[in-house]
Amino acid sequence: MSTNRYAIILAAGQGTRMKSKLYKVLHPVCGKPMVEHVVDQVSKLDINKIVTIVGHGADQVKAQLDGKSEFALQEEQLGTAHAVMQAAPQLATLQGTTLVICGDTPLITAETMEALLSHHEQQGAKATILSSYAEDPTGYGRIIRNEDGHVERIVEHKDATDEERKVKEINTGTYCFDNQALFEALQHVSNDNAQGEYYLPDVIEILKAKGEIVSAYQIADMEETLGVNDRVALAQAEKIMRRRINEYHMRNGVSIIDPENTYIGVEVQIGQDTIIYPGSVITGQTVIGNDCKIGPHTEIHDCEINDRTVIRQSVAHQSSIGSDVTIGPFAHIRPQSAIGNEVRIGNFVEIKKSTFGKGSKASHLSYIGDAEVGEQVNIGCGSITVNYDGKNKYLTKIEDNVFVGCNSNLVAPVTIGKGAYIAAGSTITEDVPGMALSIARARQVNKENYVHKLNSKK
Ligand code: UD1
Ligand code: CA
Fold first, then answer.
1. How many CB atoms lie within 10 A of CB 220?
2. Residue 364's domain is classified under what CATH number?
3. Distance between alpha carbon 334 and the CA centroid of its chain, in Å?
4. Is 364 a known active-site residue?
5. Domain that residue 75 falls in
6. Could you tell me if the CB of 83 is within 6 A of ligand 1?
7. DSSP line for 273-302
8. Which residues of the chain have pLDDT under 70?
9. Are strands 169-178 and 127-133 parallel, antiparallel or unpaired?
10. Quick check: pTM over 0.85?
């Protein structure tokens, strides 16, 4: 029978060093809050119960992790040992192995946690620390080993002697414990230290003193264990995560011309042979098909983009975009738009909450808002929908094969029937029947030689 496994995620701290209104563990790394990265990685393991310890910003943290974790409230932040103790009602009596992990180590992977758990179970240890080497260990707890190389205890940076501070093997803040031994030992942790806090790492020394087996599993990849306490570390985490995400896509057949300058969110999916040019920021639940060209300098959030579409120097949010579409340069696709296949949206065109049927075009300088545009429609340069009277928004319907001449105003609500032709410069205020030519502009008057008359008056 395999051992039951539990996880406790520490996320109650304020994160003073972030100097932020936002609670530390909710700061995003590549678009996802740190603590959610941790919970998502933990969830990949076979874990019977996940308990997240919440305190500062408890409501927001709970809302963010809703359905992914159980919660225990730590009303006062008296230290990491005290935090773990808050999970006692859910866990203390259970048999099995408990993984404890900080909510501010967003880079740690499920593979590493799995390796830690199997090392722990193989060693038959009561506690195993995930340790790492840091070139600059400042701020981390140090692993203190005896002459035989066995782990003795962990000393916090603030409590360490000069000699101990030279140690570069650090506590990553991830551990696994025999669950019952953990909750038993927690009762013996004191707060007699530099910070007046109950330290979880003290459990190591307590178990050791009882003659239990205590072990440390050294992680090869130091990067994974970065603890984010301030915004400098946040930027480092972002950089590492960004590289990881970009490498994942490149290995999957996506070309990224300049990975250092390409920002892709964790949830984004991209198809094969798509090319991402520099300066592109692709976030949210965006899904991009095969053979697309995105960028340079393009911002895409929560969009579905189909095969062979090209989007250059443009912004698109919360919209669906078909295949073989070209957008940009300098176009703006605003939320709730649905752009059909083979559409062309050119420079300085803004589309808002509108649909575009197959093959339609708005190639230059247009505003199309609250509109239903059919197939094979041509919207001439500078034409706009007049969708707003200062109070309400109205719908413009442009049916299939309509040709809207340049610089026309379509004053909504209005329908332009199938195949109709709007003369350039028209201000359309009434429906236009299908196949009609509509001219709605003042007639041109040429006054012969009038300029001579004007000049003679001077
Ligand atoms: C902690 C470890 C240190 C380790 C480092 C790794 C302790 C005492 N020290 O230090 O050995 O090298 O992590 O990154 O554990 N938290 C609570 N309740 C509390 C206090 C903290 O939930 O009362 C949470 C925080 O939200 C945070 C995590 O525990 O997610 C770690 O706390 P933090 O204050 O960042 O500890 P470090 O000083 O980084
Ligand atoms: Ca920390």
1. 10
2. 2.160.10.10
3. 19
4. yes
5. 5-225
6. yes
7. T-EE-TT-EEETT-EE-SS-EE-SS-EEES
8. 1
9. antiparallel
10. yes
